[in-house]
Specification:
Elements (H helix, E strand, L loop, with lengths): L2 H17 L5 H50 L9 H13 L4 E6 L12 H6 L4 H7 L5 E8 L2 E10 L2 H51 L13 H69 L6 H28 L9 H15 L4 E6 L10 H20 L5 E8 L7 E7 L15 H13 L2 E8 L2 E8 L7
Helix pairs in contact: 2-6, 6-7, 7-8, 7-11, 9-10, 10-11
This protein binds adenosine-5'-triphosphate and magnesium ion (MG).
Magnesium ion (MG) binds next to α10.
Length: 475
């Protein structure tokens, strides 16, 4: 896939991923953990309350039945001689002292005659009101008359009393409920820890993948002690290694293609030079000979002079065109002169054809006389020529500077920069769509392991740069 198509494909992919709504894993896990913990607390509490309520009801009712039976049996109607009221008071105190039941003496109007013996003690250990309301079963009571025939002295009221049973259940609850709550909290905390751990590990793999996407295929996802993440990292790394190998093979193929295409161009240039050159030279020599011969003729037709002049002019033009074509196929000085001389010849050529633009060459003395290899020189030459042409054609620049330097931090690297004072690329902030010129430069740079920086604006100037390593991959 070529660079622009690849870029468009990535943009389309980016748009597609932006449109799709995604939900973070942490939000789902935390939401689920909270919901599960809360429902667990509620369900367990509800089951405990229902069971405890039933147990309270059963226990208090059975205690009530026993107490009621005892009262009925021990408090028969009196027909004189016995102090039934004293007996009833004693019985009431005795029953009131038992668990789960209460007993009180009421007057004939139903008003209590006696305070409960154990009521105060019991209320001290009682459960909170909301809990008592939740647990209290329906009231069960019975009134047994205290008689001294023919008078009814009062009533002995026996009732089921769940207070102490409820207090006991509350005692269990006040331990179970906080434990349940703490267990829920621990579950949420665990979910938080797990998601933090997982997202951190995923983020480190994602960071490595983002770097790979940027073209740094030598980056590797970090290894992990968790099996699943170690497998994921191994998978990503295997993919990166595979891509790296594929890219290296592509670069090699590209380099071979460029090498063979340059060899082909050189052969055509040589053929043109060797075949056409002498023939054109011979043609021009023959024409000038013919002109010399006709010049001596006393009466010659004017049309003959004009025709011979036209032949000479056309021969010259064909020779010039052939030279330009040969130079375009392979610079004549390549392999004969240094890189600086090659570029100097290029700049001089521009001065001849475009007088309205001043093209200057600036060569660092360190680079002068160096020869990074024929293919690298050719790529630098083609880069400089295309960039100067672009500055003239697209930027309408009046001054173009071609500089040849070395990088201070990488002394072996040759940096060729073309700077112009034109209006710069026109596509807003983004990079303009590359044409054949830039695609050719990029392909060559990749094959040679060089870096191409497409035009960028800085301080009202347009710069474009090629960084050629020394030695480059192909020589
Ligand atoms: N120095 C520059 N100033 C202004 N615009 C530039 C400059 N260099 C490149 N560009 C922009 O980059 C685009 C791509 O340049 P490139 O050389 O790849 O293609 P082209 O010149 O349009 O066509 P080709 O080189 O194939 O004949 C140009 O169309 C132009 O808009
Ligand atoms: Mg161009």
């Amino acid at each position: 896939m070529s660079a622009p198509t690849e870029g468009l494909a990535f943009q389309a992919f980016g748009r597609a991923t932006r449109v799709r709504r995604t939900v973070p894993l942490r939000r789902i896990v935390m939401g689920l953990a909270c919901a599960v913990s809360l429902s667990l607390c509620l369900i367990v509490s509800a089951i405990l309350i229902v069971n405890a309520r039933q147990a309270v009801q059963e226990e208090t009712e059975s205690a009530f039945r026993l107490a009621h039976e005892a009262v009925v049996r021990r408090l028969p109607p009196s027909h004189g001689g016995r102090d039934t009221m004293t007996e009833a008071i004693g019985l009431a105190e005795e029953i009131d002292g038992l668990r789960h039941v209460s007993a009180r003496i009421l007057d004939p109007e139903g008003q209590p005659l006696q305070h409960r013996a154990h009521g105060q003690l019991r209320s001290e250990a009682s459960a909170p009101q909301w809990f008592s309301a939740l647990m209290t079963p329906p009231l069960v009571e019975a009134l047994v008359p205290i008689t001294h025939y023919p008078n009814v002295l009062g009533m002995l009221r026996v009732a089921a009393d769940p207070t102490d049973e409820i207090a006991e259940v509350w005692g269990d609850f006040s331990i179970i409920l906080p434990v349940l709550f703490l267990a829920g909290l621990a579950m949420v905390g665990l979910a938080f820890l797990m998601t933090t751990l997982l997202t951190r590990r995923l983020q480190s793999v994602q960071a490595a993948m983002a770097q790979m996407q940027d073209g740094r295929l030598s980056v590797r996802a970090p290894d992990d002690r968790l099996t699943e993440f170690a497998d994921l990292a191994a998978g990503v790394n295997a993919l990166a290694s595979h891509l790296q190998a594929e890219q290296a093979e592509n670069d090699l193929l590209q380099a071979r293609l460029i090498g063979s295409s340059e060899a082909e161009r050189s052969r055509i240039a040589l053929d043109l030079h060797d075949e056409m050159g002498p023939q054109l030279f011979a043609l021009r020599a023959a024409v000038s000979h013919a002109q010399a011969m006709t010049a001596d003729l006393p009466e010659r037709p004017a049309a003959l002079d004009e025709t011979l002049d036209a032949i000479a002019g056309h021969a010259l033009e064909v020779q010039r065109s052939a030279r330009t074509a040969i130079n375009d196929l392979r610079p004549m000085l390549l392999g004969e002169a240094s890189l600086a001389e090659l570029l100097a010849e290029l700049v001089t050529g521009f001065r001849d054809v475009a007088s309205e633009t001043r093209v200057v060459l600036d060569v660092d003395p360190e680079v002068e006389g160096s020869s990074p290899g024929e293919l690298a020189e050719l790529s630098i030459y083609r880069f400089a020529r295309e960039s100067v042409l672009n500055a003239m054609r697209h930027g309408r620049a009046t001054v173009v500077r071609v500089s040849l330097d070395t990088m201070p931090d990488e002394p072996g690297q040759i940096v060729v920069r073309v700077t112009d004072n034109g209006k710069g690329p026109q596509s807003g902030t983004g990079r303009p769509t590359p044409g054949f010129g830039q695609i050719g430069i990029e392909d060559r740079a990749r094959a040679l392991g060089a870096t191409y920086l497409p035009p960028w604006r800085d301080n009202r100037l347009t710069h474009t740069e090629l960084r050629m390593p020394r030695p480059c991959k192909l020589r």
